Amino acid sequence: MDVLTSYSFYIVALGTVILSFASGIVGTVSVIKGQSLIGDAVGHATFPGVLAAFMLFGVMETYTLALGAVIFGIIAFLAIQIISGYSKVSLDSALALILSSFFGLGMALKSFVQGNPDYGSTQGIDNFIFGQAAYMLRSDVYLIIGASIISIILFIVLYPKIRIYIFDPVYSNTVGISSRWMNFTILSMTIVLIAVGLKAVGAILIVNLLVAPAVIGSLWSNRFSVVLIIAGCAGAVSAFAGTYVSTVMTGIATGPAIILALSVLVIFSMLFGRKGLIRKSIRRKQGVSL
User: Fold this and answer.
1) Which one, of 184, 189, 181, 223, lies nearest residue 209 by Cα?
2) Cα-flanking dihedrals φ and ψ of residue 71, to 5°?
């Protein structure tokens, strides 16, 4: 209970909660459009960007490492588009290729940096793999909050266009809403959220913040606005619970703790949600009885 009265805990929890809320909302678009695996590939691709930024500048500074993650995320996305668009390689194969190649590069750079004394202290690099909010600095939290709030505001401003872009792409082009521009905007928000959330959740699990809340929301409602709200709230609740568990229990990384909390909500929603198994079973039985 002492943790719940700690100012430092609430600062860190605020960062993970806002990050997860924003990721749940933005990630819902990718899930509905069937592009969630692109976020997975980009998330893994940001890890070598963190290492490359550290090797170039020699500082474990939040903004520098996040910039490296963003650059590599963009490179990974462009590589996916080029491979799938200008070769006979399918999109799924391109995603698998980029994900494994970039993450393998990140692990190779990590081994090289940690085995080379010229780079000095590398303490904290492992946190970018699985995430550890307990070791986040105030600057990390400020960056997460700033990027998340900007993403949420941008999403609200573009909400009418986003809704048309998702559910009626033909009409979207007719009224002058560029599908390419909307796709770029959503992807940009996704990459930024992934980059700033690496230290909190980790490169391996960050994509779950984009996918799992959207799944939870879709199991409770068919209305897009309601799905967005449920997704954001599910991400926020799971982030607070996971951050608390990882702070109280030594040795448990924040990323896995948050994802486990999300997994519990997913299972609960699959059973008791509006489109869950139990509701379907009840409706099926009622239909038989009638």
Assistant:
1) 189
2) -60, -45
Give the residue carrying structure tokens 């070769």.
87
Rounded distance, CA 258 to CA 253, Å? 9
Helix (H/G/I), strand (E/B), else coil: 179: helix
Q: Enumerate the H helices of 87-220 as residue ranges.
A: 91-114, 127-130, 138-167, 169-174, 179-201, 206-220
What's the pLDDT score for residue 121?
66
Domain residue extents for the chain: 2-204
What's domain 2-204's architecture?
Answer: Orthogonal Bundle (1.10)
Q: What is the DSSP string of 232-263?
A: HHHHHHHHHHHHHHHHHSTT--HHHHHHHHHH
Pair of tokens at residue 197: 């959330």
Contact 266, 216 (CB under 8 A): yes
Q: What gap in Å lies between CA 126 and CA 24, rounded to an integer?
A: 25
Residue type at position 199:
K
Give residue 267's Cα distance to chain centre: 19
* Euclidean distance between CA atoms 132 and 124, whole angstroms: 9
pLDDT tens track for 230-280: 999 999 999 999 888 888 887 777 888 899 999 999 999 999 888 878 877
